[in-house]
Amino acid sequence: MNKITSLTNSKIKELVKLKDKKYRDEKGMFLIEGEDIILEARKNNLLELILTSNENYKDDIEIIYVTDGIIEKLASTKTPQGLIGVCKIPTNSSNLTEKVIVLDGLQDPSNVGAIIRSAKAFGYNTLMLTNDTVDIYNEKLIRSSKGYSFSMNIIKNDIKALLSLLKKENYYIVTSALKDSKSLEDVQKNGKIAIIIGNEGRGVSQDSLSSADIIVKIDMSEEVESLNASVAAALLMYEINKK
Amino acid sequence: MNKITSLTNSKIKELVKLKDKKYRDEKGMFLIEGEDIILEARKNNLLELILTSNENYKDDIEIIYVTDGIIEKLASTKTPQGLIGVCKIPTNSSNLTEKVIVLDGLQDPSNVGAIIRSAKAFGYNTLMLTNDTVDIYNEKLIRSSKGYSFSMNIIKNDIKALLSLLKKENYYIVTSALKDSKSLEDVQKNGKIAIIIGNEGRGVSQDSLSSADIIVKIDMSEEVESLNASVAAALLMYEINKK
Predict the structure, then answer these.
(1) Distance (Å) from the C-alpha of residue B2 to the closest C-alpha of chain A?
(2) Looking at this predicted complex, what is its ipTM?
(3) Which domain, by its residues, includes A135?
């Protein structure tokens, strides 16, 4: 059995770099940890390599045996369970499912992860993201999404291109804003639907507002200015599903 | 104008300790930052002292002028806007509003903050928390709650005591679980209601399950095991409000 024991080993140094988005984009690879998330990656054929400090570990995927110190160096959590997965970034999808969730400039990886988990739960299987949205291969995001992003169609582009694709394909576009907005009751769902979620601070972009077929507001106390983005996204998806 | 410039000043050293729960409990004080959150604390008469690095800052609350270095030391964000508030922890409330949200062992401060923000938005103005739930004066939690916890009735105790109070006051108790659960449609709301949200990993406690009048499950794809706790909480509150 070959075992890498040095943190300065060139292969390990290269893998550590995958903690940076720039290098992930360049190499088309990303790191994962945690059994559940590794399982999701495996199911979706993204898993290419396993690093483990457990010398009895067996797998039908390529394995590199390493020390606990190397696992810790590659991990983003304090208890990485002795296992790190290296995955390939899938290519941009061209599939559009009937229900699409669009992330317009979201920045908080935990929020985006929670939105992906809800999207999968509510059958929104296409995820569009603007180029200025947080990287979906961010470790914190993957953790919060429970790995459900791995089975979604992902389309990343600038907002104008995403909107124009949705328009061309006759999606009914829903977004939310505080001003000039209607009740959720007024959503007319019959067919393809896309819900746009805006940035945590500034909301959805002007382009999205202009392209929306309806802008809604979730009923709530006037004492509160807005909901958390992942909460708003889940409420919109759940409510519109009931129509 | 008196200005403290030394990080080793005894007053500053004492305030820095408020970053620890143990010391917050002992002193009955906590730290906040950010204009919006300071405003919420002020509205609720919790603000006792302001520390600022802005020498032109005026307030009707006691002010201590300090250096940027001291602000950074007290702050939990990288851009604390030159302003730190010191607040008193209010005493346990004995008020019970018609709608109550109960947190049974939640650990993630961002989740709990988002739940508080939703609770306020949906009129759940009493927050019960078990002793093993994350401290609600945790800075990350306050940030995520946008300071809305300051205007809630807060009752902290062990789960048995909280449940017995709800039972005595004839609350209809709703919680959610994957097994043996009914549809949200079956919730019979007419009068006082309490919703119990469980720990992110293990769900609600056995005591809560035994005391609930109804255990529900949110409709979703079988591919997903569970929703994020703050998402589930918001969906339950919003849906039950519509009844």
Answers:
(1) 36
(2) 0.91
(3) 99-241
